Amino acid sequence: MSDTVLVLNSGSSSIKFGLFELPASGPDLLCNGLLDEHEAAPRLVVKSPAGETMFEARKDSSDTDSGHLFAEVLAFIDERFGEHRLRAIGHRIVHGGPDYSGPVELTDDVYAKLAALTPLAPLHQPRCLEPVRTIQAIRRGLTQIACFDTAFHHSMAQPASRFAIPRRYEKRGVRRYGFHGLSFEYVAGRLAAIAPQLVAKRTVIAHLGNGASLCALRDGRSVDTTMGLTPLDGLVMGTRCGAIDPGVLLYLQQHQNMSSEDIQHLLYNESGLRGVSGISADMRTLLASSEAAAREAVDLFVFRAAQEIAMMATTLEGLDCLVFTGGIGEHAKEIRSAIGERLRWLGVSIDAAANDAARERISGGDSAVEVFVIPTNEELTIARHCAAVLQTIESYPISP
Ligand SMILES: Nc1ncnc2c1ncn2[C@@H]1O[C@H](COP(=O)(O)OP(=O)(O)O)[C@@H](O)[C@H]1O
Ligand SMILES: CC(=O)OP(=O)(O)O
Ligand SMILES: [Mg+2]
């Protein structure tokens, strides 16, 4: 009998999960799955590591209780992997605030602190925390572990972590935290394995998914990132505006008769690709569309991504390596090449054939900047963190 951990990755547009076996050599995937809520009838799919479908269920669109999903996933695991011992559930928690620079066991006290951070990630934090309570109810006593998007950026120092507002707000926690850290950590680790000579070099990782952000790295550690106090700052996203003149918010509130709730909804849910195109938040749909507004939304996404990559390069005082990851970064060759074109002046040159084939290294021979496509794996990062935390809990030794 071997030990396993179930990892839940609740993002803004999907819930992904993975079941990992925990041998001493590191977590091994047994199956993974996705709850896709984009379709009219949300779909639950579980696949083997080879990509074969092991289980599929279509949920009634009126069934908005994700608790049913988790009960279904746990029942499936019991049935198919009953010979293993489920040791813990590992959760991606988007906001860890100032207190958590690494993974922690989810006690009631920790839960309360994380729930209090909901206003700083209103789209994500409730979705991340809801399964914790659900699982507590259906599997009392099962260890649950929180792994944070913010933790990787605790290495970020001032001035990168500072806003230009009076210091008293910084003391109250109003500072730049950054997100997508579990993804950046995984990609930085893969990059170190593929190209160890680049670890000490000036690297920017572009996580371009439904949520999107950049991380500037030196020696594999985060020194700057584009998201701030909340996952609203920085790049244009699926439904989020990214960086915006704060005067816009004042104007909307004072002269467009909008409440703070209206403004929150506008900036988190109705902006970004969705708002600019008026068509969709999904990059695939926009790239396939012949509408001018779709093209304009994609152009703005590319323009801003290139601008902010140059901003990260300023923090690093140059750029040696650029890595694309996330749903768009991994799959949208048009976006990678358009961003590359805008960064020619920085020495970026992308090889068209390598880019079309989504090879691991896509920079041309003449490029001053090494360019890679590295698929992210937030679930594996969480599983690794869980294995480390479980080893510190005496009553849960990991079997060799
Ligand atoms: N083949 C593709 N071509 C272009 N865009 C894609 C492709 N596959 C996925 N995407 C885009 O990736 C985005 C979702 O990214 P993902 O990282 O999966 O999201 P999440 O932030 O929810 O984890 C969507 O905009 C989607 O359109
Ligand atoms: C932090 C964040 O934006 O996450 P996601 O990409 O899952 O929306
Ligand atoms: Mg994501």
UniProtKB/TrEMBL annotation:
MF-aspect GO terms: acetate kinase activity
Signal peptide: none
Compartments (UniProt record): Cytoplasm
Enzyme Commission numbers on file: 2.7.2.1
Record text on cofactor binding: Mg(2+). Can also accept Mn(2+).
Entry keyword annotation includes Kinase: yes
Record SUPFAM superfamilies: Actin-like ATPase domain (SSF53067)
Family matches, as Pfam families: Acetate_kinase (PF00871)
UniProt: substrate binding residues: R92
Residues given in the record as Mg(2+) binding sites: N9, E378
UniProt xrefs under InterPro entries: Ac/propionate_kinase (IPR004372), Aliphatic_acid_kin_short-chain (IPR000890), Aliphatic_acid_kinase_CS (IPR023865), ATPase_NBD (IPR043129)
Record-marked site positions (Transition state stabilizer): H180, R240
Catalysed reaction equations from the record: acetate + ATP = acetyl phosphate + ADP
Pathway: Metabolic intermediate biosynthesis; acetyl-CoA biosynthesis; acetyl-CoA from acetate: step 1/2
PANTHER family: ACETATE KINASE
Record's subunit section: Homodimer.
Function noted in UniProt: Catalyzes the formation of acetyl phosphate from acetate and ATP. Can also catalyze the reverse reaction.
Family: Belongs to the acetokinase family.
The protein's name in its UniProt record: Acetate kinase
Species name: Bradyrhizobium zhanjiangense
Gene name of this polypeptide: ackA
